[in-house]
Amino acid sequence: MTITLASDRMRVTMEPAFGAPISSLTDLRSGRQWLVEGPYLGQPGDEAGYGAAQAWAWDECFPTIGKGSHPAWGALWDHGAVWGRPWQIAGEAEPGLCTAACNAPDFVFERVLILEGAAMTAQYRVTNRAARPLPYLWNQHALLATAPPDELRLDGMPALVTDGTHRDWPHHPARNLTKVGTLHEGLMQKSCALAPKGAAAEVVAQDGGIRFDWSEDLTAFGLWVDFGSWPQDRPVHQIAVVPATAMVDDLAQAERPGQLRWRLPVVEKGWSVRVPPTDESVVKGALS
């Protein structure tokens, strides 16, 4: 079953049976589909695997991003415990509103999608059902379909950390990271940053752009850039903008002093991400 939401400016589709990914995010004014598209392979369930064939759409990573284990959770799969699992729709989806939840024995992870005006807002809530505290990480894993001469802009995040090296945005030894590269460039980079209040990420294109803003309690950000370097047997072109709860992907690493702030006793915790299309555009041919 596919859920479709629409407003005068945006159309969104979601697939509840396989982790409720947002499978398309379309600006109806320009016709631009902003997410990498593809088919879901495999069966939904607790052992659903995430790999190159599943690297598309907008996924939710909780309570970890990378594969690992943690005493409070046991073994954790890549992308965590809500990706690849069946979600339930609460009530009837309306044209601009849909509530979906992953109901597990120890927790409920809920996301409300709201299309209002020109923007989509994703509101999140997680509830602990366990008798013990549950530490967790979360990030939004939105893989964007971009191509030259698109530009990537980060607001409020002057420095990125890549493999322990701090670099001022958008500087890189090989290139200016503002410019979206080609599939044949062979660049792959995973970076993270502190994201203070007011931070945002934006892609600007010839026919407009799209912007990601998030609530101020999300104080970290990740950036994944792959211009034809991964995977080796079938390289892809994608950018992921990643509002997050911490500057790490592994829950065990997040337990180190100064990282983990997100822990659930038997209470709820919420946050949000707002995604408006923009009408600002790059000049054709300016990014040669």
Characterize this entry briefly.
This protein is an all-beta fold. The protein is built from one helix and 24 strands.
Please characterize this protein's 3D structure.
The chain is an all-beta fold and about 290 residues long. It has a single domain (about 5-280), classed as Beta-galactosidase, Chain A, domain 5 (Distorted Sandwich), CATH 2.70.98. Helix content is about 0%, strand content about 45%. The protein contains one helix and 24 strands. Strands 8, 9, 10, 11, 14, 18, 19, 23 and 24 form a nine-stranded antiparallel beta sheet that branches. The longest helix has 4 residues, at about 250-255. The model has no long low-confidence stretch (mean pLDDT about 90).
Helix coverage percent: under 10%
Derived from helix and strand composition plus strand pairing, the structural class reads mainly beta
Poorly predicted ranges (pLDDT <50, ≥5 residues)? none
Number of domains: 1
Order of SSEs, N→C? EEEEEEEEEEEEEEEEEEEEEHEEE
Q: Under CATH, the topology is which? A: Beta-galactosidase, Chain A, domain 5
**N/C terminus separation:** 43 Å
Report the biggest beta sheet as strand number plus sense, adding barrel if it closes: 9 strands, antiparallel
Mean pLDDT: 88
In CATH, the architecture is Distorted Sandwich
Number of helices: 1
What is the CATH first-level class name?
Answer: Mainly Beta
Rg measurement, Å: 18 Å
- What coarse outline follows from CA principal-axis ratios? globular
In percent, how much strand structure appears in the residues? Answer: 35-45%
Total strand count, please? 24
